[in-house]
Design goal:
Layout: E1 3-16, E2 19-32, E3 36-40, H1 47-55, E4 62-67, E5 70-71, E6 79-82, H2 94-98, H3 100-104, H4 110-122, H5 138-150, E7 156-160, H6 168-184, E8 188-192, H7 196-202, E9 205-209, E10 216-221, H8 231-234, H9 240-251
Helix pairs in contact: 5-6, 7-9
Bound molecules: adenosine-5'-diphosphate (ADP) and magnesium ion (MG).
Amino acid sequence: MEKIVELKNVSMNYHSSNGETQAIQDISFDIYNGEFVSIVGPSGCGKSTILSLISGILKPTSGNVFVKGAKVDGTSENVGYMLQKDHLFEWRSIIKNTLIGLEVQNKLNKDNWEYVNQLLDEYGLGEFKEHYPNQLSGGMRQRAALIRTLAAKPEILLLDEPFSALDYQTRLAISEEIWLIIKKEKKTAILVTHDIAEAVSASDRIIVLTNRPAQVKSIYNINLTCDTKTPISCREAPEFRYYFNQIWKELDVHV
Ligand code: ADP
Ligand code: MG
């Protein structure tokens, strides 16, 4: 399989008025094309920093990040970023929200306009194009946010705790929907989450990080026996509890 993201001995220090914070210490890992990989680790350990480095928003203090074999130097259309808050503009219709990235970058044309409309139709928002975000459920809003991210046709999606503001039931349903879209559109996904069950149910691999400064503590290949291979059904897999308990122990969560 083709490596699509590579981190090679990446370290990241933040400098602020309070001094220096080392967020990442000598992290190396590879992500392969089409994989769904989750990153879990203690709060504040450096997870979001890793996504920002992959997206090119931040530059590592040392080491290198490669996307499709090229050294990351600034942001690129190949990488889409989805955050916990959907950041939809309440005064813009759904179609206008999903087109905003293309519009701002002056890249809106007939082709990508059609592509976005097709995504909205395909993923249950066809009748809501002229609606406003506050007329949509939380799940529909997240889908709209994902379609806005997909509009630029990124090959890699970075998801930073995109479901953590939602209640448990909604979260299960939405993570299932989002996962299905990501698979159907054949994207590579890197999900940061503090929800171990979410990570185990959705991922091909899980990267477990240490406390700050983050280092790779371990990497799990997730092999679950389940018929449909979707996150909700994978929660029923006999191996699910094993992975959950292993990662729980590694994270050593103190209540
Ligand atoms: P996580 O996403 O795992 O919770 P972050 O990557 O957001 O962690 O942050 C890792 C560490 O770096 C934290 O201690 C945080 O306070 C610090 N940090 C994050 N962003 C900045 C910044 N812009 N300036 C200074 N310190 C930062
Ligand atoms: Mg974070």
